[in-house]
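In the laboratory, one determines a bound structure by crystallizing the protein with its ligand and collecting diffraction data. In a computational setting the workflow is compressed into a single prediction: the sequence and the ligand go in, and a structural description comes out. We illustrate the idea with S-adenosyl-L-homocysteine.
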Amino acid sequence: MYHPKEDHIDELVAEERQGEALDYPSKQNTGGRQYYIESYGCQMNFSDSEIIASILSQEGLSSTKDISNADFVFLNTCSIREKAEETVRNRLKEIQVYKKKNRDLKVGVLGCMAERLKAKFLEEEKLVDLVVGPDAYRDLPALLDQVESGEKGVNVYLSREETYADISPLRLDSNGVCAFISIMRGCDNMCSFCVVPFTRGRERSRDLYSIIAEAKDLFEKGYREVTLLGQNVDSYKWTNPETNSIVNFANLLEEIALLHPDLRVRFSTSHPKDITDDVIYTIAKYENICNYIHLPVQSGNSRILKLMNRTYDREWYINRIDMIYKIIPDCAISSDMIAGFCTETDEEHGDTLSIMEYAKYSYAYMFFYSERPGTLAAKKYKDDISEDIKKQRLSEIIRLQRQLSYEHNLKDVGQIYKVLIEGNSKKSDQEYKGRNSQNKMIIFPKNGSLQPGDYVNVKVIAASSATLTGQIIE
Ligand code: SAH
Ligand code: SF4
Ligand code: F3S
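The predicted complex, in structure-token form:
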């Protein structure tokens, strides 16, 4: 049995994704305007930064990795939890130093926090020159001209139509093998804890043919894996204006899978209320649709799920898990959990632990509840679980998940998996890293002429709760 050592609580508290300076094959500085961008939050934000990069490159702006060379600094921000916003506020304090050195430096806040705080941001943080929400990136070139002339700029208009379908994202920090494709924007669910519907607006699905074209183009450029992104991919719905026929998520998955057997297809996030048997059968039918589903449960207790407005209960969720394992026995399932939602009792928290064991998650993102202004929960319920209890419940969730991940990984030892090589492992250029269909990263010694983007059969020889190590099988 695995006994994870008792870590300090701060380490147990799941990490907010830190801002990452994004770099990409930019042109050398040709004397034109340069910008520096950091992304925070979810994959959708990273994907949006690639759209922003594309819009800016059309305008002749080039990127720099060195903030001291920049004319513009952009933070693409996240509002999902209080800590995510604090991280951005702290980063702005650091950026103040650069602004003092270069008075012409302009600072732009983009993304979800920009949308949530709107023009208020300019009052609260005097160094900010520009505030742009997720649906207004096409307006960036005009807004940059505006701030360069000394004015402040704000555009937080939320659209019902914008999907940036025609914009070909400039791949940031790319390994040349894996890419994200945004298939929809916004969210129409009103989970009571969640700020996303307010920061990203109404749900809209992107034109099927523009998604196919993007995937095809990536494949032709040597990419071998695409991840289809949306807050709730299972509710993808696009009506073909010519035929009036409706394309759902299962149809979309199939279309992308059929492009080429060597193009792997992943997707995120699935919503337990919307994932259909049809989607599960489609995953099973195509070898290149990965056997991995991120299916956030949030809580294992039906009363809490109701308060969360998730619109499913424990039994429904268990039925989805049963169906997935029945149709795809080797499917890996991961989840998100929130500890200490309003009024949650110890017993109800126990239901989250027991559903985790039932689902045998391979991986999970775990958080304690953070009240967000303006959400249904903030309006209707008291945030009445103390921080100590939230952290204690979260640490129990994290400890259990470590054990489940370890048990999941142990089962892989001795198995042979088809792995897509993504690049050198972090530790050594003598080793490659790549993932199997179940989204498990495997590290293995290099051999012969294999390159990133190649598929290789790897036998797993050892496992920890975090990684698998293996050997190439000829
Ligand atoms: N669309 C996805 C989730 C997007 S947000 C879904 O429906 O599952 C990513 C995760 O952040 C959520 O799954 C949830 O677990 C967590 N989260 C969202 N709001 C939160 C809040 N107010 N406090 C703590 N965690 C939160
Ligand atoms: Fe937030 Fe719920 Fe939408 Fe996910 S489905 S983004 S948790 S409102
Ligand atoms: Fe954060 Fe916005 Fe994503 S709030 S999680 S960056 S959709």
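The chain is about 35% helix and 20% strand. Keep in mind that any predicted model is a hypothesis to be tested, not a measurement.
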